[in-house]
């Protein structure tokens, strides 16, 4: 007959490890995420023309650069950049050399006494300077007067040339030269001669540099601050006439049908999403392989991611600060671990930032509050702890929003700005509360759907009023008491080596649950009665004892206990041998007629540190309890012997535990056992004291 339940379990196990199924989940979550980010990214389009009346009021869906106003600002800045002229020193030097040469010749003429030689020297002067009357007036001046005029003319020409002369400033330079010459003499003819002599050497020496001018213009254009179209700012009113500026703004925002920005936006979003998911995949492969290779855990992680993004998409229409962004960090840190929760906090801060329009304030808030959420789940041992976490997150949200508002100057703004800030702060407080409420409500469903067991669920199972434990307490009080002590031992040892102390304790409470089927076949429940096994065949006794493991598994399933507890029930006894009944059988029937396998538990051997600890604690508690006159020396010997026996029997061959950790467990169990049996231990008496 077809067993549907068995088929379902096998199918689930296959899918859990299926590589194809993992890829389907990974790409399914990827495309769903891309879709959620893309929806609403492209706003509705308009087909407006210059001169047309706008059919509705249009607002900017996001902050972008206003290309029209930015271009105007750049053009204005460029217009203010003056042309660049380069001083050509060679022109200056050549002019001054020529002026100096002319002045030297005139002085030479004035000093020449021979008329014929003087005539020859005059002829070497430029034609305009060969005017004998004006020249005679100059050379007939005293030597000191002549030198004064020479020096003054040279000084003025040199100064004007060094200041730089452009084509359009040459006339100004000439006028300055006339003024200086007029101050030297009152003779009009001599003034004109001196001007003719010196003005020839006022040369244009400032040359226009197109390259330097263009470089300055580029720098001026670069320094212009971009004019922004702010998110939610009004672009055009309903009924307003559309201008060229409006069209350019709509195109920049991707609101005009002629805009080709859609493809660019989608491409950028695709690249961003691909990069983020590639980083997640590499991180899972390198640091979270238990999630990477487990399709069920991968699906759960993707589901938490998508739930958070869907909530972000829905609540962003009311207020972006109402989004319970810390829901994912809370759930992931409880269901998985804090390392993965930290990674996903960063991822979600980026993804939700895209959803809300790249709001810097929100991204900072999501990142910081998410990390705080991870920290607050460090010791979540009951569901009410999530309420405390929500209160802390709310406080952090308020702090972040206030601090960023102080940085941006929102407190000093208008009344409207302050009002909006107060509303944002209230939404931030509410966000933390919503996240904790949702986490409390969703957590049990996720635990059951994905067969995960959190510390919260384990502690609920530790309640004595729980159905299975209550039955254990009523029907097998001795076993219940034994299990409680084993739980205390296991918890202490687990804490010592960094294993899960809550799992070890709760697993100990249930490891002997199968004994409720035949309670009086176990010595702790016989309460002074004659031992039933004394009159039974050892093989039959062994079978009853061994069967309590499988009976416990079936009872655990019927009570709906999680798989991790059922695994501890199976592994707590490993494949250990019932030495008492095995030796009794050998004495009765001979060693050759006794099958050792009939006296061993079916296993499996411990697969986890918690299972190994439980095996040690169970055996040690039972052995120490059986000592009639326990002493410290006896207890230490028993603990040492039991642990060494388990190791030599190969019970830890499949367990990821080290000898160092085993030694720490041994020391811790010894210390706790001493505390439990302190009143009963008979310490050795010193002979001298006696």
UniProtKB/TrEMBL annotation:
Keyword Signal: no
CDD domains: HDc
Coiled-coil positions: 167-230
Membrane-spanning parts: 20-42, 263-286, 298-323, 335-354, 360-377, 389-409, 421-446
SUPFAM superfamilies assigned to the protein according to its UniProt record, in alphabetical order: HD-domain/PDEase-like (SSF109604)
Keyword set, alphabetical order: Coiled coil, Membrane, Transmembrane, Transmembrane helix
HD domain boundaries: 479-623
InterPro entries given in the database record: HD/PDEase_dom, HD_domain, HDIG_dom, Metal-dep_PHydrolase_7TM_extra, Metal-dep_PHydrolase_7TM_intra, PgpH_phosphodiesterase
Pfam family, one: HD
UniProt superkingdom: Bacteria
Signal peptide location: none
Name of this chain's protein: HD domain-containing protein
Organism: Anaerobranca californiensis DSM 14826
Phylogenetic lineage: Bacteria, Bacillati, Bacillota, Clostridia, Eubacteriales
């Amino acid at each position: 007959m077809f067993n549907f339940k068995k088929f379902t379990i096998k199918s689930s196990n296959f899918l859990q490890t299926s590589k194809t199924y993992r890829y389907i989940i990974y790409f399914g979550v990827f495309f769903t995420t891309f879709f959620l980010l893309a929806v609403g990214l492209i706003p509705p389009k308009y087909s407006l023309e210059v001169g047309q009346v706008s059919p509705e009021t249009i607002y900017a869906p996001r902050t972008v650069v206003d290309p029209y106003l930015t271009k105007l600002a750049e053009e204005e800045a460029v217009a203010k950049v003056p042309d660049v002229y380069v001083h050509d020193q060679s022109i200056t030097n050549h002019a001054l050399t020529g002026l100096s040469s002319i002045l030297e010749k005139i002085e030479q003429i004035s000093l020449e006494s021979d008329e014929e030689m003087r005539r020859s020297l005059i002829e070497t002067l430029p034609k305009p300077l060969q005017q004998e009357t004006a020249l005679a007036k100059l050379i007939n001046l005293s030597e000191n007067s002549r030198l004064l005029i020479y020096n003054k003319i040279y000084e003025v020409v040199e100064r004007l040339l060094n200041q730089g002369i452009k084509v359009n400033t040459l006339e100004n330079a000439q006028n300055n030269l006339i003024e200086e010459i007029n101050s030297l003499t009152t003779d009009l003819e001599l003034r004109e001669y001196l001007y003719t002599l010196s003005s020839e050497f006022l040369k244009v020496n400032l040359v226009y540099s197109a390259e330097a001018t263009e470089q300055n213009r580029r720098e001026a254009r670069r320094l212009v601050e971009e004019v922004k179209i702010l998110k939610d700012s009004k672009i055009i009113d309903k009924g307003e006439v559309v201008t060229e500026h409006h069209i350019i703004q709509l195109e920049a925002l991707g609101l005009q049908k002629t805009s080709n920005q859609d493809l660019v936006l989608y491409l950028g979003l695709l690249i961003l999403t691909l990069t983020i998911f590639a980083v997640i995949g590499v991180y899972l492969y390198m640091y979270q392989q238990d999630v990477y290779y487990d399709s069920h855990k991968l699906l759960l992680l993707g589901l938490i991611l998508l739930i958070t993004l869907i909530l972000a998409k829905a609540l962003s229409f009311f207020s972006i600060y109402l989004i319970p962004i810390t829901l994912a960090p809370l759930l992931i840190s409880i269901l998985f671990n804090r390392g993965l929760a930290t990674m996903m906090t960063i991822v979600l801060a980026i993804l939700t930032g895209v959803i809300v329009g790249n709001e810097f304030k929100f991204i900072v808030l999501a990142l910081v509050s998410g990390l705080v959420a991870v920290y607050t789940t460090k010791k979540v041992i009951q569901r009410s702890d999530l309420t405390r976490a929500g209160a802390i997150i709310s406080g952090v949200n308020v702090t972040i929003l206030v601090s960023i508002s102080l940085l941006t100057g929102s407190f000093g703004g208008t009344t409207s700005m302050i009002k909006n800030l107060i509303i944002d702060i209230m939404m931030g407080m509410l966000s933390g509360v919503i996240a904790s409420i949702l986490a409390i409500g969703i957590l049990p469903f996720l635990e059951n759907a994905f067969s995960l067991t959190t510390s919260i669920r384990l502690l609920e199972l530790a309640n004595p009023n729980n159905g299975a434990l209550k039955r254990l307490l009523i029907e097998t009080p001795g076993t219940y008491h034994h299990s409680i002590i084993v739980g205390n031992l296991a918890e202490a040892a687990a804490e010592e080596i960094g294993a899960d102390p809550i799992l070890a304790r709760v697993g100990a409470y249930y490891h002997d649950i199968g004994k409720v089927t035949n309670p009086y076949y176990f010595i702790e429940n016989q309460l002074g009665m004659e031992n039933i096994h004394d009159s039974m065949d050892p093989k039959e006794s062994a079978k009853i004892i061994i069967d309590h493991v499988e009976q416990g598994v079936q009872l655990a399933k019927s009570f709906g206990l999680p798989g991790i507890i059922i695994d501890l029930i199976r592994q707590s006894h490993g494949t250990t041998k019932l030495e008492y009944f095995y030796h009794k059988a050998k004495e009765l029937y001979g060693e050759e007629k006794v099958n050792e396998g009939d006296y061993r538990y079916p296993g499996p051997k411990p697969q986890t540190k918690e299972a190994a600890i439980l095996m040690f604690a169970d055996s040690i508690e039972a052995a120490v309890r059986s000592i009639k006159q326990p002493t410290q020396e006896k207890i230490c010997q028993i603990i040492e012997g039991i642990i060494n026996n388990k190791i030599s029997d190969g019970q830890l061959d499949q367990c990821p535990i080290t000898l160092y950790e085993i030694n720490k467990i041994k020391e811790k169990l010894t210390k706790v056992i001493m505390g439990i049996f302190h009143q009963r231990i008979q310490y050795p008496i010193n002979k001298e004291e006696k």
